[in-house]
Amino acid sequence: MTPPKKRKARKSAPAAPVYAGLTPDVVLDAVESAGYRCDGRQSALNSYENRVFQVWLEDDRALVAKFYRPARWSDAAIDEEHAFAAELAAREIPVVAPLADTAGHTLHTHAGFRFAVYPKKPGRTPELEHEDVLQWLGRFLGRIHVVGRQRDFKERPSLDPDTFGYDSLDYLLDEGKLPPALHEAYAAIGDQVLVAVGQRFEAAGELDWIRTHGDCHAGNLLWTEGGPHFVDLDDCRMAPAVQDLWMLLPGDRPNATRALTAVLRGYREFAEFETRELLLIEPLRALRMLHYSAWLARRWDDPAFPAAFPWFGTERYWQDQILALREQLAALAEPPLEAAW
Fold first, then answer.
1. pTM score over 0.85
2. CATH number where 54 lies
3. What is the CATH classification number for the domain harbouring 238?
4. Fewest Cβ atoms closer than 10 Å to its Cβ: which of 57, 62, 86, 174?
5. In terms of domains, do 137 and 43 share one?
6. Positions marked active-site
């Protein structure tokens, strides 16, 4: 599968306070509508894109209820997320998959909200400075990608220079999100970065676009004595395999080389890895930087975002982003990271 050609960003409709009606009673009623008896206890978990709650049942078990942001994904796209998680779980890959009701449905609707229910899994943030942990994660990522290569997503987009790069930059520039005094400087460095990103993608040649986790950072991993659990496939997309590897690496080159070597040593026990995809690590980092700013801007009408990210949109924020993109442009000119085999 090849990524789409560059296109103009779509204009987004003005956002509303999408979760205003998601009261504690609605959360409990929703979970009960899916066939569970709640005992009244609940607590909000850390999540901004969606709303996620831990809910206790009368038998003292705890479940996790995830309420999807309205209008972000179609039902079909969410079904693809759930099906991918189920495929992985069926192969004993430690991904937390949604629970199905008696009719086999994993996506539910209540009071206008779409939601899914998950088993509560314990765990802590993995210690990514340990090579044995990185190798262990690499083995499971290799197994995930073996499954990911078996078919394509049909309803979910690709992670590529258009969707994460040009669409993000166009949105920020067209919607008046930048201070006027910094608009030209941000536009210039953004364009330069995306040209360099495109050159790296071209240098990598024909890529194998597969189903990936898409957002595989330490916050989406739970570590137990038995190893890792991968959580939150909400951002799963078609992407090159390296998308699920690079966020596990530290920022400095010597330690990143050491970590990459450990991850790939485990990964290659189960899956082939195209070494030329290492050309994409810094381009993917650049795309994430642009996408993150655009994500915050697109969600600013959600009251949770100004409260959680009060620094966003300030002149200092955009000055720092311009500096960070200049540094990233320099990183894009450096030789790609290599594993020490």
1. yes
2. 3.30.200.70
3. 1.10.510.10
4. 174
5. no
6. 215, 232
